[in-house]
Amino acid sequence: MLMKAALSRGPEYPFSLETVELDRARPDEVVVRIVATGLCHTDLFAKSVLPAALGPAVFGHEGAGVVEEVGALVETISPGDHVVLTYRHCGACRQCRGANPAYCERAHQLNSSGSRPDGSTTITLDGERVRGAFFGQSSFSEYVVATADNVVVVDKSVDLITAAPFGCGFQTGAGAVLNVLAPEEDSSMVVFGAGSVGFAALLAARARRVATLCAVDPLPARRALAEEFGAVSIDPTTQDVAAEIRALTGGGATHTLDTTGIPTVIGLAVSALRERGTAVVVGLGAPEVTVDIQDLMRKGKTLRGCIEGDSSVQSFIPQLLALHSEGRFPVDRLITRYSFEDINRAVADQASGSVVKPVLVW
Question: Which of 38, 102, 188, 215 could be joined to 249 by an S-S link, Cβ 3.0–4.6 Å?
């Protein structure tokens, strides 16, 4: 099938909208017509580290659309279903069997290898291989080949443009709060980085009626929005973040979340905790960070990572969509819509901080 896709030809080049060919679906696969795809930092991080010498690639992993075709072995999905696409997992390894699919032992092969598990490609350009199957979808394209494990059927009343980022960014932030940190109503939570993931975390904490919420971000517009959502905001460029957090929380936060991936910020997220507090990191960034181990030990603090919100997608994404429909998770306020032809403008606007969550629409 011929279709349009936003190709990356290397870190130094912008995305280019080109005509490519999608492979036929196999018996265990489905074809989805993409309505919208969220633009995520992970897409841009992957683009920045994939050398041009490896050839063109199609990213995109927050797709939402309508099922066009279903393979003979697929039993839980039907043509015409409205779906949100998310990460792949094998379903058979120790982590998947233990209800921890985000930590699937085959995660890299299934989500980041650039091909199907057998090495075949789902996308070609003039007969040549294109790196695809990103998170089992590569949804910066008009159509995708996906599989049952990364396809979540949603009610047809759900707005697919709003739903697209639930496949990664929104579930990452909300899941870090609801599935990992699990704050009580009398807790205090500080989010470092008020982007789409950070705001999803704040809104999830607000839905749990967490008493004290705080957002740390250098951008005035994002601090203002955080305050509209009930959080106290801190400007790290002009304020003593640690002192402000101690004053706000009576000595230290019970929970902190870093979305930035910046080592110094992660260190601050740990140091800002009170005794037996927990810090969670979800941002892609530098691979090494310095942490005061004596502080961690003496005060019984916890520092842990979190991928995809520790979520089991078939239940968690519908849970979040239900919260949204009840008005308790208003992430639609974070979204700015762009046509796919404007993908590079969306990238630039996200980088400048002028928008929180770009969503690309065909």
Answer: 188
